[in-house]
Amino acid sequence: MARGALAVLVAALGLICAVGAQAQEEAPPAPHQQWPFEGVFGTYDRAALQRGFQVYKEVCSVCHPVKHLYFRDLEELGYSEDQVKGIAAQAQVADGPNDQGEMFQRPARPSDRIPDPFPNDQAARVANNGALPPDLSLITKAREGGPDYAYAILTGFKDAPAGFKMNPNMNYNQYFAGHQIAMPPPLSPDQVKYADGTPATVPQMAHDVVSFLSWAAEPTLDERHRMGFKVFLFLIVATGVFYAAKRKIWSRVH
Amino acid sequence: MAAPPPGVPAAGSSVGYGRIVRWIDYRLPFVSFLEHEFVAYPTPKNLNYWWNFGSLAGLVLVIMIVTGVVLAMHYTPHADLAFDSVERIMRDVNYGWLLRYIHMNGASMFFLIVYIHLFRGLYYGSYKYPRELLWILGVVILLLMIATAFMGYVLPWGQMSYWAATVITNLFSAIPLVGDKIVTLLWGGFTVGNPTLNRFYSLHYLLPFIIVAVIGLHLLALHQHGSNNPLGIDTRGPQDTIPFHPYHTIKDSFGLCVALLIFAFLVFYAPNFAASADNYIPANPMVTPNHIVPEWYLLPYYAILRSITFDFLGIPGKLIGVILAFGSILILFFVPWLDTSRVRSARFRPIYRWVSWILPVDVIALGWVGASPPAGIVVTVGQIATFYYFLHFLVLMPLIGKLERPRPLPISIGTAVLEAAGRLGAAGPAEGN
Amino acid sequence: MADLAQSQVTTGHDGGTRRDFLILTAGALGGIGAAITIWPFIDSLNPARDTLALSTTEVDLAPVQVGQRLTVAWRGKPVFIDHRPPEEIKAAQEVDVSSLRDPQPDSARVKKPEWLVMIGVCTHLGCIPLGNKTGDDRGPYGGWFCPCHGSIYDTSGRIRQGPAPLNLIVPPYEFTSDTAIKIG
What we know:
heterotrimer; A: mainly alpha; Cytochrome Bc1 Complex, Chain D, domain 2; two-stranded antiparallel sheet; two-stranded antiparallel ribbon; 4 strands; 5% strand; extended; C: alpha+beta; Rieske Iron-sulfur Protein; 2 domains; three-stranded antiparallel sheet; 21% strand
């Protein structure tokens, strides 16, 4: 029975690897990056998240919404309540109707969602040559390869190889399936002036904004890892105790 | 008053608790029922760990129902709001992420455990006389689980939710004459949409309780003749059995701890391992994902469905695929009669013993086929694996049962246990089942 | 083998004659595990973060003229804000507190006398009293009047006549500046 089970386990693992391997198509798989939130003991690097938010706000938010984020969520990045109020107040959100029956704009509050750059999908397409910039709140969970893939896309822009036919308004990207992406390269060196003085190279900005987006997709990761550690500790002890108890009780039979 | 049943405190007991229990039990024999079915209930004393998976499945079902009911308090079953309500659960509801990940990965645990439980039954002949109905009820539970899981997956209304619903409901259009009408009825519209989502939500909430009822019947059938055991021979009396409590309560508790370790690893460290990234994209009826792939536990059926790429005798390949996919589960109903062996346990069946292991390997191969784009070698492997699957049940099971010479069975469970402990010589001649 | 068959169950809780540490520990761990597991389920029913984020409302009082009354929403309920003119304040302060059903001096109900902030829900059975909109019937005391069962409140929101047992409830609030308050 045990040998058979082993054979089945090997077959199952083979399947899992095969399923993982067939996920990419014409583009090469994204190279693996080191992320501080990876692994069983991973946590987010708050400094990177704040820099990443700055990149999102100054570069990406022009086209990409993050509709599942509220301004109040930014307190988790380490900003104080007042700082968050200040960040929120820089944005305008629609509210109303007022007593005259009209909708109006007002400064955002922490309890508001971070507003979309465009009023609807069609307006977004019109501003982007017919392409729809996807919402980024879940992007690192919504793509095979997750953060590695997002980083690869941001740093994978280059000139098309000789003989490669580019469609109009498209940009060559090494890691995008089909190699033609509607988004022009969003990052250029020193585009953003980091408050903490970190040099804003393209790899640095890509790393930071992907860290921010990973947090945006999975804000409860730190709590999940912490809880998991305690649960595991408890379960390992419990397994040991129950096994010993089982052996003790069954000694009457054996 | 007659002497109270076992487990109920005797009359004259000075304990007040005893008097209350006796009063209740005389009118509604709940305590003596529990005592009879879960405490003193005789179980074979040679059960191995493959017998843990039944109670484990029951416990995972409880976890699924409890997390499901609480999630239902926060979920909104409307096409425009469902996806966002799930994200709200993940971000804003206290411990919502935990409930969601437990429910999501619990489904995978449930199927993993049930498939192992099913294979245990196949290997040890637990479906044979007198447990045929026990087995059949189990297959009914499996069908209900598949329906429940399929509908549950639609609820988050991601890309995979929407398109898996579209593909699977479209299967019914293969039914001749009334197929399209049936599909329209299922959809409540002209495509999968809000009406579909609402009815799937209602049924997804309902079906688990029907599963509970069928499990009640399953346990009733089980307790009628008691559990099978690794030797496949009947228990002869108290010398072959031990009471369920404390032996199997503690053993099942230990098994639960091990299962929870695996479950906890998934929930806390790899919660999206079994998930499809596409389901984190809101459903878009205008865009089909590159690979529409069901959850892993449905992959083998999906592979069988897609393996029939040709028409046969005027019957469209699509219809044959549907028939075979459903047939791959329905054939399980007939296993008690397809297997002609007079010996239950594969331990004593030299040929079937290793042949039976090819089946899970075949099913895993089908799983790989189901997960891969249907091109090239994948298609061929899928067709061979589908062929073998039905060959196993329709040809190998009947033939091997008739042709093989089983090894001699031990006289009794007791002698086999002592023999294993080295205190007896070789067992005497076999005495049938 | 016969004695094995006859041997009855000796569980871990048979009157404490055989205390088995291991089994007790196992049982205790199981119980603790179950208790710890239950908490997230219960806590998930508590207000979620988005609900809590809306648990305070900030109100800019600058546009509210003397004599004007404003209704704002707070935690799903209406809150009456009254920029009281001197005659309303005087009427509120001159009432004999001991004659009230729910005795409360006006000073205990306001932080600044010209601003009265109360939850606009009648303490009888929960209707919203009239009096906050122009043209509403304010009742004989110039305060508020509940049309459902006739409860009458004065210019401090205290119950004077009718079935309501308590004064209109003052929510927790503070002045964040001279012209703004934060409720909740």
